[in-house]
Design brief:
Layout lengths: L1 E7 L15 H4 L3 H7 L3 E5 L10 H8 L4 H4 L3 H8 L9 E10 L10 E3 L7 H15 L4 E7 L2 E6 L28 H14 L3 H8 L7 E8 L7 H5 L3 E4 L3 H9 L3 E3 L12 H13 L4 E6 L1 H8 L2 H23 L5 E6 L16 E7 L12 H6 L3 E2 L5 H7 L1
Helix pairs in contact: 5-10, 6-7, 11-13, 12-13
Length: 399
Amino acid sequence: MKYVVFLLDGMADYDVLELGNKTPLEVAYKPNIKSMSKDSYVGLIKSVADGMKPGSDVANLAILGYDPNKYYTGRSPLEAGSIGIDMKATDISLRCNLVTVSEEPNYEDKTLIDYCAGDISTSDAKILVEYLKEHLDDKEFTLYSGVSYRHCLIWDNGTLDIGRITPPHDITGKPVKNYIPENEKLYNYMKKSYELLNNHPLNIERAKKGLNKANSAWLWGEGKKAMLDSFYSKYHLHATMISAVDLLKGIGKFSNMNVVNVEGATGYIDTNFKGKADAAINAFKNGSDFVYIHVEAPDECGHRGEVENKVKSIELIDKFIIGPVVDYLKTQGDFKVLVTPDHATPLAVRTHTNDPIPFMIYDSRKKYDGVENLSEREAKTKGVLIEPGYTLMNKFIKE
């Protein structure tokens, strides 16, 4: 038996006026999902428990069968592990976004314009991160370069008692004064980063080209060193993780999965969809029993309020990833498919919510009373709610 999870990050949504009061998932042309949904076990899952922040960290741990109340130590430690940082027990890690803020003289008067600095390239970001390291690294703080706008700061002998700290994708277009870190050391780091970056030659060139400057670090996602049980010890399956983002690669690493880096995988709608499908097929050919294919594009489109692109991202995933992988599995014997987001990223709010999200499980050996085509509305009609969310993986694999 082979198992594949198609994780369409942030796919779930609310009704969108521009789409005739339907969701992107409802209007997207997705024949491969549709062909399976009629015979699938369909319902809703509460992937993020009430009282927990609806981040991709908590949500993906739950989808993979890890109880976040037991295993979650923060987002950044998972990302730190993925880029090879060997954290000490006394370290605190923080996600460091390169963001775009407005240029008022006082930092607290600025507005957060863009949480990803125009989806800055990894090569440009590395130049700026190295410049920050040169001026700000010391015995207490060490900055590490990641992918695109996503980087990691390690705080030696740091503390989690830091008060308010806010993900930048939650406050796009808002004044930062209500969201800057309460911890003075972290706030000073962000202020100094702006002083260093705003007039950096690379940012001057970006502005001339009409691109957003990556003119500030934004710190969030704090946590201690992560520890996960191996996926094999939980389910006795050889597993592979395929994703463009450090968070999922970190989860894969800490759970002892095989982690695949796909050339051209960007985390956005320009990602290498075909490359991800090829990587999944190769993983099965090389002995994996379970493949988790995480695609970030719907989430990024939700954060940016891009209605057409969110629909398009779902269609591209269906055509270039789900179709080829399922076609391959049909030639290999029995298999099961799980299609689900990790959380909702509604276009109307441009951030994550903890609403129940749709899922479907297709089993090549049996037929369920499914739905005409997977959507939030159709899933709700089945009267199935999986809660707590981390129990879904056990149902997928063992039932």
